[in-house]
Every structure is written in structure tokens, then in C-alpha cells.
Amino acid sequence: MFTTTQGAHALFADLTENAGLPLAHAELRRSPRFQQHDHVFFGDLALRRYKHNNRWGFDDRDVRRVGQLLADMAVDFDDVVEVRFPAYPELLNGTILNWRHQVATWMYHLARKQQTEEDWGLDSWKVIGANGLPGTLTWEMFVAVGNQPIVAGTLPLQMLRWSGQSWLAPRSYVQMMDRWQEREAEMTATFRTCCSCGAQSPGWGQWRTPTPAGYVTRCPECSAAAFPAYTGQLDGVLYDSPRQRRVSPRDYLCRLCGLMQASVWDHCHTEGHGFVRGPLCMSCNTSEGVGFADRFLREGGAEYLLQCRGCREERTLASRFHAGVVHLHVESSQRHGRCRQQPSVRALDDEPGVYRYALRCASHTPVRQWTVAVTAEEAVSLVGAFVDGVLAEMRRGTEGLSA
User: Fold this and answer.
1) CA 9 – CA 57 distance, rounded (Å)
2) pTM
């Protein structure tokens, strides 16, 4: 019987309350959006997610079966084996599907966080100390609340102990986690396979598209063959109009990347606008909504934003992108004296009515640093000029197609 993620979480937590294996029950409530497949692992045991009436959940029979197996699992803390974690250089060529790699990555990450800003260029945080940990990291810091990595639904730090010479963990746990690595790799490969042609995606999760019944893996070529490109069918239509609700975004390719089936209608949130801009896949919708504004504009997003009729007519962009336009202007126009090197630009906390940036030119010794301030009035002018340039480029493209 289908049960919600909340119901599955409560049932699973109750079944495994006294389990010998330390479990991260909340993994059942994590969004599947950023996962590589439709399963949640606890050790080498997998629970499959299902989507029913547009809601994610689980089969309660699966939850009971896996929960009972984990509750009955015995962990002998006296039967231990050595666990060798990779040294820092080995991590550069490792894989996140290796549980030892994941723990070591977290270990070095925390060790580097202990460094002062002046010492970040030093390599002392990579050196393993007498306590088996790198740099100045202590065991207390490593296991602090909120600092425990979760791997395959388990808490590996609670299974480890330092003998004075090596890390040890229960044999049964190490064997289980090694089995998880194999199952995770097999399952990830399966869900990377295009459902239409059988091609393998170049990266995890890149071709996964949400549908009312769950995720579907489809390559860009098969997506383009299955769905038409959006060509402005709802141009000038308000997002809350009945006409928009009669057309599904899933009937089109994503207007922004053009590689995936779209999932949602995106619209301009500027007061007085509210026009539909186009259908987007979930990845592009996230990038537009919460990504870095300057990066979004740099990657060609401005033309898409101007699919809003209100923005085109008023020669503007949604307010969150004004800072991105100013950032790009400062980046392209500022130089240290006659130096041709483009400086790095970092946004500072804005003052009311002012955009502030710290600039750094590393082509000199010592490094040159300075700040730039742009008023809100100047920003409006920059946005207008930026939009004019984009609209002119769009017109040239249209004229070229009609020639």
C-alpha cells in the first residue's frame, strides 16, 4: 500500500528504534530531485520511491521488510577490520560512490575549515596527525552535531574508532558498505540509460526529467524527437490566465537549454508584469530562480528573460537581475591603470541605493585591490542599455532567419 514520505519515515523510525546500526532516518524525507535514481539506501538495502497522484512516497510493505531486516541485524563491535581512508592526492581521482572516499572528503573539508584565512595557501591541513585526522582536526570536531556525514543512510563515524595506528570498524559494517558501493554503481548506471535509445548519459542525473508518474531518463536527441521547440505560443499571456492552464509545459522542450522536456511554466514576477516567459525543465527553472544572476546572464539567459512582454516594453529585467547586469559592467569596464588583465569582481553587501564591489588584480605584486560603487540610478541606466543591446541582437537574428 502506498504511504507518504512522512508516513514511511515514522514507520521506519519506529521499526528501527533499537537497531544496532546507526541510521539516518530522515533520508526517507529527502527530495528525490537531486538523487541519481529512485531508491533510498540504508546500507546495501534499498527502498524504492513511487509517485502517486503527483506525490512521492513508498510501498509500506517495502518499508516494513527493510526496517525489520535492519532491526534484526547484529553488529559485533569486537569483530573489527582496518579501514584505510585515501590520502588527499588520491581523492582527486576518486569517486563519490566509494564510501571511504566520502568520509575522507568530509574529513579534509573540516580540516581545511580550521585553517585561518592567512594559512589557506599552506598544505598543513592535508597532513595526517597522530590522531589519524588531518591538520588540527580533533575527533570532537569531527563528530560534532551537524558535522556527521551520511553515507548510504548510515552514520559511518559512529562505527569508527582509532586504535592509535589505524582506523577500525565492525567487519559486518565494512562488508555491507562495500556491497552498497556495487549496488549503487549498478543502479546509477541503469538510471543513466535513455529510456528510448539506450544511450548512457555522460553524468549522473543529467537526463532525468520529472513527470507526474516519476522520473524518466531521456537523452537530448530523443527529447528533441519527442517534443517540439517552444516558439512563443503564449507570448503576452498572463501566467494566471485560463489560457495558460489549458496548455501543459510538458508538451514542449525546455525553452532555455533546449535539451530536456519542460516541466513548468516560468513567468516574470515583476509587479505589473506576470507574463509567461516559457516552459522550463526543473534544472533551468532553478537556475533562473535562485542561481547567480551574473552567471545566468553570461550564459545567454537575457534573451530568455525578455520573453516577458512587460520587460521588453519597459526596457528592463526582473529586479533580481539588475545586480547581475551591474556586475558584468564592472567586470568588463574596470581595469587597474593600464593593465589589460580583467580583475576578479566580488559583490559586497549592498547599501541602500548602492551596489558595491571589491576588485582584485592578481597581475601585480603586491596584488592590487580596490572597490567600486554604482548607484541604483546608474544601475537602471545600465540595465536599459544592456536590454537595448540584447533586443538589437535578437532583431538581427530574426532578420537573418528571414533573409
Assistant:
1) 10
2) 0.74
